[in-house]
């Protein structure tokens, strides 16, 4: 992190009971089983705004973690991302209760019609006054494909080709259909919109076709802030072109691995005609914090009593597409699937490189219900470690995972945020404006001129 | 209306500037141009709850009213349902600000994946505590089809065959996948859900296929309250099987036409093994009310200064699929399209049966910006007319269209609601419970046992 730069911070969450730290819903203070009430979400949003979080990042998965044991039973038993509700629904209630907090919501383009998705995000952008981001995913679960009537999911690289085509289409709707001054709202003339300034979008791509005007007038950001999380080579290419924010898994605070990915992503962005810091990079982190280091260690032990390593293993099996129930406890794991393997091996090998991976070792690592190792300490210690990690790796901020909710967020707001602020590495107040302006500065409400999507903006004749 | 029966009441609205009474956004008091702010929606919801409205009915259209003149220009000019935002997005903010008001939201099944739509409505039902209805539409605009990459829309009857298949699929998810007591939430055993009580849904219909469990735990109503609006013969068959509430266009208070449709709908319901009053029938109505009849007439004249008959004609052209810009002002209209023609002719012929229809006559009828003739009078007069119309036709309630918003709703709440209450034909307080319980009585949170969809409920072995 450069001097003067402020750490960015999202809460990482899901409209479900278990998200990352599985089993924690059994903790007496954990409120995640109330995920289906609006009070739960509004209260969370207020807590995050109190802590000046930039955003609430709402992950999502369509389908169930049904690789472990070849059925959804283990996931159902432990509430491992199932049941799971639609992440978009609670947003307007949270937006109404807050002023600055943004909402970065996941939508899977493989299964959503682009014309409707474009309208949905324009509406969100309008109603939140520009506090919306889209986490672009293409999905990885066969169970989702079967739920859509396909026999198996579309091949990985092909999904990204479809995603490129999809993005071209929605850029045309968001950027190119309505001119900035198309809407006149003139009660005197009775002309609400100047039809000459609304352009028909024609798209005839390899996967998607459309002939229509966009249904929404220009929203504060037009294109929502684009988030993306893939770290495969094809995923990084996609991100270098489209993403304004990238979410990386924790890699368990491994500086070397993280830095090499960060450097590569920024290089690819520059190769795409963008500036290196046109991409904001967030790393996932699990924090257990208390007033003292001893208190935090005690809290960790207390949390571990409720965590479910079995839940973690169920989730991990689906993430890597490998049924780990078929291994004996001490049998070396020989992974067949290459899916997401690079990042995953990076993230687990730091724990004890060299020794062969077994289910027993995984279970040991998953003492908080996931493969993510927590950062444990006093507020001051955690703040130091986060700042150092950001400085050494060149990332821009963190996606804070919950352990016990809302306690994890309250603890962070009460104990870590003031320490970060004291160090001058975290904002003491929100900047005005849309999410994109908060991230990239004043007058940056719209896609940067260096961004690929900007070419789809309507330009006057002769400048098109 | 039977004695003791209470009138039901929805506000009819759309996430757009112009909805039915076109041009009224030019009125100095009209706030519809603020449709893209949450304050607008939350304030409206509070007004409706003050008036003990049963629900806010959110219409929607995907595509533009581009039949008139063969382009969307006229619709854009006058804000005739374009721009239009996604109706689902503001619901959670309104639900958080109210306790009893329900939300009947339109979703077009032709363009939404059933697996995702099922999750979206389950989520809405959870977060609103069962205050959600789904207005099932199949769409009627070619422009929507072109926006989806099709060259023209799917044929009318075929759309209903698809809808039948779609409904079977979502019933299986909502009713059949999770048993009532599947979720244990047991912090002691660590078992959130009993996997034995979650059933895999297999659907292999002519149009839709799926193999998955539903992603959501059972919501208060399971299946949202089902609204439907088609009055073609095929549409009525569909409604008699699926709909719990039917929305009919105003027919301009024509008792005979309305009663014959109502009787036919109830007959069809009974033929489907249901009770005649298992279907609640709502009729659209435009009301202009003031303290006195003279005041109301004056208000009508004032409103008419702002209305746009051209906007009404633009909307009407799209509704009937006929470009009325091709007719000279006094040339008799010879309609080519049969689409929705029955209901539409019913609704206009009352005005002046016999004389041939011309654009001039239509424009005269559209003095409030739509083909709907307003009911004008003092609160007492309007209450009498509404009660009499309901009694004579056998309908259950009204969908109140807005002229100037929120004034139309405020006027109705302040002037008509107390009169209805005095007459004993309108509730003085909300009943407890979900929307379905409010409509059909205590312990009726779920689909009636007489409803077609109920057969998809999971039943124990031997009773399946």
TrEMBL record, chains A, B:
Task: Kindly name one Pfam family recorded for this protein.
Answer: Bac_luciferase
SUPFAM superfamilies xrefs: Bacterial luciferase-like
Q: Which GO terms describe its molecular function?
A: monooxygenase activity; oxidoreductase activity, acting on paired donors, with incorporation or reduction of molecular oxygen
Name the positions where FMN binds: 60, 106, 156, 160, 232
What residue stretches are annotated with the Luciferase-like domain? 29-396
Coiled coil segments of this chain:
none
Taxonomy, superkingdom = Bacteria
Keyword list (alphabetical) reads: Flavoprotein, FMN, Monooxygenase, Oxidoreductase
Q: Which InterPro entries match?
A: Diverse_substr_monoxygenases, Luciferase-like_dom, Luciferase-like_sf, NTA_MOA
- Family label: Belongs to the NtaA/SnaA/DszA monooxygenase family.
What name does the UniProt record give this protein?
A: LLM class flavin-dependent oxidoreductase
């Amino acid at each position: 992190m450069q001097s003067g730069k402020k750490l960015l911070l999202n809460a990482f969450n899901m409209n479900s009971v278990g998200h990352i730290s599985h089993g924690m819903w059994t903790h007496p203070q954990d409120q995640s089983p109330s995920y289906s009430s609006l009070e739960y979400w509004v209260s969370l949003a207020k807590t995050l705004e109190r802590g000046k979080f930039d955003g609430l990042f709402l992950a999502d998965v369509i389908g169930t973690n049904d690789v472990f044991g070849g059925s959804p039973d283990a996931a159902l038993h432990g509430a491992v991302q199932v049941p799971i509700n639609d992440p978009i629904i609670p947003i307007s209630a949270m937006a109404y209760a807050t002023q600055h907090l943004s909402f970065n919501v996941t939508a899977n383009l493989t299964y959503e019609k682009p014309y409707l998705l474009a309208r949905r995000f324009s509406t969100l952008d309008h109603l939140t006054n520009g506090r919306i981001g889209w986490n672009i995913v293409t999905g990885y679960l066969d169970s989702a494909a079967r739920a859509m009537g396909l026999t198996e999911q579309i091949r990985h690289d092909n999904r990204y080709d479809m995603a490129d085509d999809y993005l071209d289409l929605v850029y045309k709707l968001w950027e190119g259909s309505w001119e900035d001054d198309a809407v006149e709202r003139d009660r005197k003339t009775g002309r609400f919109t100047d039809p000459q300034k609304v352009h028909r979008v024609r798209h005839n791509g390899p996967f998607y076709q459309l002939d229509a005007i966009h249904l929404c007038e220009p929203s504060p950001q037009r294109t929502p802030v684009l988030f993306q999380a893939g770290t495969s080579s094809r995923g990084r290419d996609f991100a270098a072109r489209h993403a304004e924010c990238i979410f990386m898994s924790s890699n368990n605070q491994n500086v070397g691995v993280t830095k090499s990915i960060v450097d590569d992503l920024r290089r690819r962005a520059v190769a795409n005609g963008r500036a290196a810091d046109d991409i904001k990079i967030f790393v996932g982190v699990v924090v257990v914090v208390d007033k003292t280091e001893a208190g935090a260690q005690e809290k960790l032990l207390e949390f571990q009593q409720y965590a479910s390593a079995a839940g973690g293993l169920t989730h991990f099996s689906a993430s890597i597409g490998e049924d780990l129930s078929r291994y004996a406890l001490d049998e070396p794991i020989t992974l067949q699937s290459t899916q997401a393997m690079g990042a995953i091996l990076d993230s687990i090998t730091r724990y004890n490189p060299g020794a062969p991976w077994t289910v027993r070792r995984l279970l040991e690592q998953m003492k908080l219900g996931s493969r993510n190792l927590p950062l444990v300490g006093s507020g001051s210690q955690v703040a130091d470690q986060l700042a150092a990690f950001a400085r050494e790796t060149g990332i821009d901020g963190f996606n804070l995972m919950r352990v016990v909710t809302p306690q994890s967020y309250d603890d962070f707001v009460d104990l870590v945020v003031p320490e970060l602020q004291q160090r001058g590495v975290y904002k003491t107040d929100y900047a005005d404006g849309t999410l994109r302006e908060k991230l990239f500065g004043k007058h940056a409400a719209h896609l940067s001129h260096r961004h690929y999507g900007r070419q789809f903006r309507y330009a006057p004749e002769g400048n098109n």
